[in-house]
Specification:
The protein has about 425 residues and is α/β, with parallel strands linked by helices. It has 15 helices and 18 strands. The chain has one domain (about 55-175, about 240-414): Rossmann fold. Strands 2, 3, 4, 5, 10, 14, 15 and 18 form an eight-stranded mixed sheet that branches. The longest helix is centred in the first third of the chain and has 20 residues, at about 10-30. The chain is globular.
């Protein structure tokens, strides 16, 4: 994938060079090689230098200098629709929300306002956020847009030992450090292919991809994939042990309530399909997609598709029930995004441009309404986020069927 990328500023290049030196030093100290998962962890989260821990603007459109748009940035209707499902979970458990990786804080604002309007604002809204820069942005967003509810919000450095309520993670699992593997042909007499782990080494003083035999838990997970599908070698893909471990840990700490996880990904049998040879690792920089994770470390987001079968297994093995799994489009439609869209009208307090009408087949609509419809279309269209993104709920002590999965539940496909 060859992409012309915008030229970074001198300050951004300097920060990337500092991060590259830090990574190179760790490679040298580790015998000349680190796993790709460790490289990705440093590239995204190294204190003060990583993509999410540095000071660069991440979320938003071209005009704000962001690298990508998340669903809450597109329209507040995403959070308002999600609030209907969250309200049901809180009613069945405890009035507390934990949001992992809250981004700009827009989803927290939209959820709090919508839940308050429904008469069920949580007693506590806790944000698990490791980036100081993002915490500051979240605090400013809440103070500006929901000052009357900001006092209910606090920030966590780590998960509480026990919690009840709803834990929400939107586009978190895809950014957890993943391992890259290559299944090789191996020997004719071998029942399963050889498995090589791709990592990062130094070649002539520069970062370079390098392989070595996979071992331990990673090899075990790779063999499970190869035996079950089977993977047709030679084949390249990713296995995210960190995401599995995180879900297992959440499950251990959840007393009653549900984990609501929204991300792009697939069930295992689709994720490791022969036509997906090459994996799903992608990098995002200034709304451009590229496939070179070693390009200027710290300046690009690095993601990979979520294995939702592994997520379900991790929760189930830790004692949680799979409460539902479906596409983002199905989930949002079940929760009433169409009804909310139709109920959105611009009042007399809108700007002149918002009150301007645009002729339409079904009658004149305002420019603001047209933008809302366009944003919702991105959220639910099969060619946009509607099918690419999935929603899974894992829970304990939630007796009734969840609203978001009443139609089109795909749990059987995991």
């Amino acid at each position: 994938m060859q992409v012309d990328l915008p030229e970074p500023s001198a300050a951004a290049r300097a920060a990337s060079e500092a991060l590259t030196r830090l990574i190179a030093a760790e490679i040298s100290a580790s015998g000349g090689w680190i796993s790709f998962a460790r490289y990705m962890e440093l590239a995204l989260y190294a204190p003060g230098l990583g993509y999410y821990s540095g000071g660069a603007h991440k979320f938003g459109g071209h005009r704000t200098g962001g690298d990508f748009l998340t669903a809450p940035e597109l329209t507040p209707l995403f959070g308002r629709t999600l609030a209907r499902q969250v309200a049901q979970i809180l009613a069945a458990s405890s009035p507390e929300i934990i949001e992992a990786g809250a981004g700009s804080g827009r989803l927290a604002v939209d959820l709090l306002l919508a839940l308050d309007a429904l008469g069920c604002a949580p007693e506590r809204y806790r944000i698990l956020e490791l980036s100081g820069e993002l915490r500051a942005r979240q605090q400013a967003t809440l103070a500006e847009r929901a000052p009357q509810l900001a006092g209910r919000v606090d920030w966590l450095d780590q998960l509480p030992e026990r919690f009840s309520g709803c834990l929400l993670a939107n586009e978190v699992l895809d950014a957890m450090p993943t391992h890259i593997l290559r299944w090789d042909d191996g020997h004719d007499e071998a029942p399963l292919p050889d498995v090589l782990e791709c990592g990062v080494a130094l070649a002539d003083g520069r970062l370079a991809m390098a392989e070595r035999p996979a071992t331990g838990a990673l090899l075990d997970a790779a063999m499970v994939v190869a035996a079950a599908l089977p993977v047709v070698a030679p084949y390249r893909g990713e296995i995210n042990l960190a995401a599995r471990a995180w879900v297992s840990e959440l499950a251990r700490r959840l007393e009653t309530g549900a984990l609501l996880l929204i991300d792009y990904g697939l069930p295992r049998h689709d994720l490791y399909h022969p036509q997906r040879d090459g994996g799903t690792l992608r990098c995002h920089y200034r709304h451009r997609l590229h496939d070179d994770p070693l390009w200027l470390p710290g300046l690009s987001d690095i993601t990979s598709h979520v294995d939702f079968t592994a997520v379900a297994e991790a929760g189930f093995d830790a004692g949680l029930e799979v409460l539902g799994y479906t596409s983002q489009a199905g989930f949002l439609m079940n929760c009433g995004i169409g009804e909310l869209l139709e109920g959105t009208r611009v009042g007399a307090g809108g700007t002149a441009s918002e009150r301007d009408t645009v002729p339409g087949a079904a009658g004149d609509i305002t420019a603001a309404e047209l933008r809302q419809r366009g944003a919702v279309n991105v959220l639910i269209s099969p060619n946009e986020m509607g099918e690419l993104f999935k929603v899974i709920a894992l829970g304990r002590g939630v007796p009734e069927p969840l609203l978001g999965f009443v139609r089109g539940d795909r749990t059987h496909a995991l």
